[in-house]
Amino acid sequence: MIQLYDYVLSASCYKVRLMAALVGVKMDLEAVDFHPGRAHKSVEFAQLNPAGTLPVMVDGDMILTESTAMLVYLAKRAGPQWLGPDDAKSAAQVQQWLAFSGRLAASLGMARLHDMLLYKGDIDAWRAQGHAALRELEAALTERRFAGGEWLVGDTPSIADIACFPNAALSQDGGVSLDAYPSVRLWTRRIRALDRFIEMPGIHRLHELSPTPKVA
Amino acid sequence: MTPRWTATGLSQDLPKGVVMAGHWQGHDLAVWRSATGRLQAWNDRCPHRGMRLSHGFVRGETLACIYHGWVYGAEGGCKHIPAHPALTPPATITVTAFACVEQDGVIWVAPADMAGSPPAVSGVQPLRSVSLTCDLAAVLAVEPALLGQDILRGTVQIDGQGHDVCLLVQNNPAGLTLHALCGVRANKVAASHWVENLRRRAEMKVAA
Amino acid sequence: MIAQEVLNEWYPVAMAAQIRAGQRRVTQLLGQPITVELQKGAIVVTGQGGALHVTEAYGHVWACPGTPAHDLFPIPEALEPCRRLVDVGVVRVKCSPLRAVENFLDIAHFPFVHTDVLGAEPHTEVNRYEVQIREDSDEVWATKVTFYQPQAAKSAEGGIVTQYMYRVAAPTAAVLYKTCPNRTDAWDVIGIFVQPLTEELCDVWPWMALYDDVTPQAELIAFQQMIFLQDRSILENQIPRLLPLDPGMEIPTQADLTSIAYRRWLKKRGLTYGAQMVAA
Ligand code: FES
Ligand SMILES: [Fe+2]
Questions:
Q1: Residue C145's closest CA among C157, C129, C160?
Q2: Residues of A with Cβ-Cβ distance to B61 under 8 angstroms
Q3: pLDDT tens readout for residues B42-58
Q4: CATH architecture of B6-110
Q5: Architecture of domain A2-80
Q6: ipTM of model
Q7: Which of B48, B100, B108, C149 could bridge across to B5 with cysteines, CB 3.0–4.6 Å?
Q8: Domain extent listing, chain B
Q9: CB distance A182–B57 less than 8 Å?
């Protein structure tokens, strides 16, 4: 079974848990005391991942430390349609968004760690970079909507969407509101409405999808 | 400030069964569309424990609060309190409703007793809403073709051609929002790029 | 001016283990800058006017900026030898410290905020429970609280009707006792210790004293952080940020008896830091 070294509040770990849930892969979750224990910076953990980052995926003799690579691995193994269309342009666009998701993590993700877990750093810069990235995401999704598209690449959701989703959806945790990004908001709703979607703290499920309980 | 209709979003950004945050002259609103398409704008505060209703969820013709699930129906009356399923909530529990009208693909809000209709913006199609970090003066300074105060209108160059654009001005607590509409013959992608370029120029002017 | 009643209370300001490990915490208490650090083997809290009263308990450092009106409240269970004491770590929330405590006392939100973990529709009903302000200890207690829970704790499998007792032990500290999935003769104890940085900003330190020899520490921490972070997105979106003590401002029901008692108790004792007295 695939093993995932995991932290419940990490957007990058959630990215992988979500992808696994969507393609129906069961993983063995190994909780790491990221906060307050900083176990990911321990000597023992460095043997697994010298960079001291989470998540880490272990499958047999393979060790992955980049969450976007884990998305590729899960999709290729259990849900190839999640890799996006096969043509050159689409494949390149998927790669573009996978890389872009790193910018969301480096801006919105850091603002969130600052506001929530007291990480030190330039919060104004992180938020400004977060807004800049959200503007790009909003522009791209808005243009997709003009053409009737609902996802970042192709006609169905792909690893590109899953890679960008967590930090965008959690932006409010870092003091960045999505109010000004209607296309991003509607897109996060579409992802939350996917079959087999799982939530994380800060991204609640769409209660509207479950039936209204019968009132006695 | 004299009450007037304010554009708080575009119809295309509020599908059925969705709630979003809106604003009217400094008041935070929860603007939502029911399953059958009925549009409403309410004070964005649940009377129970103050949670923002714009974080809630729409079920059928009701809006429920995300905190304890209190359900509000037409005109803002509380219909159901999940902690007490057998209880009929007292009629006194209500959320303040605002006037909310959809016209020309734009969602307009005003106080409940507002008379008349929102201004018509004909001959243009909804494009997109954008927020800016600069003020309106900067926008007008970089694009002299735009005239007006609450509704900016003018003919601008999009893709090398003159096209009609209309920008509806909304001043939110967090800053300026413009709801952009463009001539029906304009290419929407190109018009969207024009809007972004306008924003860039206006914000850079302030930064300079 | 901060009321003397407020200054004479104890507030959590750090995790003791982190300070003992040599970390220095520069933070705020009631709007004033303070430093928590180790000096010659003792934990010292320094404010602008000098050293504050300090005590160490339940994994945390507690400080009193005035003259302590009483000792820090007891949690006898913390001394029981077989309990696992778990420091969950700090989480910052943009809300009144009092709103953070009130949320902790509330069960009606479980089905909507902690869906499928602490509650689930259609099991939303809050049965009648008892609330009292105990004269001897001057604490707010809610007892005979029951609620259906799909997954009551990390070590719980499947749904059970969980029993609770809630206790407000200090203006910004509350403790809950809940059915222990592993033992019928004891309660699991979970505390929430809230450090008021300002009236609208707080650092929250959840803490646990459990009977659970099996679950790895990291999983216990993750479970409690998951629960609290679900609350955080609620707490940061309540209007107003301050806790309204004016009864006309918000509408409670019978399910909110604990919150009503907490608000009355705060008002009666003049503990209004983080509260709003009159509707704005
Ligand atoms: S605050 Fe809205 S239901 Fe309780
Ligand atoms: Fe909660």
A1: C129
A2: none
A3: 999 999 999 999 999 99
A4: 3-layer Sandwich (2.102)
A5: 3-Layer(aba) Sandwich (3.40)
A6: 0.97
A7: B108
A8: 6-110, 124-207
A9: no
